[in-house]
From TrEMBL:
<dbReference type="InterPro" id="IPR013525">
    <property type="entry name" value="ABC2_TM"/>
</dbReference>
<dbReference type="GO" id="GO:0015920">
    <property type="term" value="P:lipopolysaccharide transport"/>
</dbReference>
<dbReference type="InterPro" id="IPR047817">
    <property type="entry name" value="ABC2_TM_bact-type"/>
</dbReference>
<dbReference type="Pfam" id="PF01061">
    <property type="entry name" value="ABC2_membrane"/>
</dbReference>
<feature type="transmembrane region" description="Helical">
    <location>
        <begin position="76"/>
        <end position="97"/>
    </location>
</feature>
<feature type="domain" description="ABC transmembrane type-2">
    <location>
        <begin position="32"/>
        <end position="252"/>
    </location>
</feature>
<keyword id="KW-0997">Cell inner membrane</keyword>
<keyword id="KW-1133">Transmembrane helix</keyword>
<protein>
    <recommendedName>
        <fullName>Transport permease protein</fullName>
    </recommendedName>
</protein>
<feature type="transmembrane region" description="Helical">
    <location>
        <begin position="118"/>
        <end position="135"/>
    </location>
</feature>
<feature type="transmembrane region" description="Helical">
    <location>
        <begin position="174"/>
        <end position="193"/>
    </location>
</feature>
<keyword id="KW-0472">Membrane</keyword>
<comment type="similarity">
    <text>Belongs to the ABC-2 integral membrane protein family.</text>
</comment>
<dbReference type="InterPro" id="IPR000412">
    <property type="entry name" value="ABC_2_transport"/>
</dbReference>
<feature type="transmembrane region" description="Helical">
    <location>
        <begin position="141"/>
        <end position="162"/>
    </location>
</feature>
<keyword id="KW-1003">Cell membrane</keyword>
<feature type="transmembrane region" description="Helical">
    <location>
        <begin position="35"/>
        <end position="56"/>
    </location>
</feature>
Amino acid sequence: MVESIKQLREHKGFILALAQRELNAKYKQSFLGKLWIVIQPFMFMLILTVVFSKFARLPSEGVPYPLFFLTALLPWNFFTNAVSAAPSVIVGQTGLIKQRAFYRLSLVVNRMITESINYFYSLISLVIIFIYFQVTLSWTMLLIVPLFLLQSFLIMGFMMLLSSLNVYVRDIGLATPIVTRLWFYLSPVIYSYELIGEEYRKWLILNPMTGILDAYRKVLLHQQMPEWIPLAYTVGFSIVIFIIGFIVFNKLEKKFADVL
């Protein structure tokens, strides 16, 4: 682990340059550019607000549904965008891997930085909706920093695992979007964690995103501390998946160039 950190520091310039290139390339020929990062979740929020608050009439923990939904949607998008992109992180850079000797984990870190920047941009839409509904500021909002770090730890674990496995088993890349789509409905994004009955809540906790999404709502909307049981499980799961992902990636990356 220490050696990996050292190598990543040595490749810092390469990682940042690659991240900047990817961000610029994605929005280069778009008239609105990076504004789409804000517009997309905002429009999605408006559509689902009509569907689930007006027609399905799902309870929203006593706050306006747009607030309730967007507070969970943005961190969910951060998670699913990064995880969905993971399988192509290595296989999408075949030429670079074959032509240049560098620490392959740099590519995963680069993508993580790119998705993090996109996430920060998307938070502008949350600030706008908070101002519109006059959400009261609270010290608990500062807890989004450790929540972001925890979520990043979880995401990195999945990204290392999926990006390395997909080099050898391409089915990973085909299955990931299907799994993340199903995962969306099994996560408390459009509905409240508290809406689930006690007998089923213990199963929902096994989803590592449950603790994170519920925690975001607690600290941002209710000025409360997160529930420790689902969050504790998420912490434990994140540590395990990070270690597994790190070990698998470093074991498999030695033959990436040969397989690709």
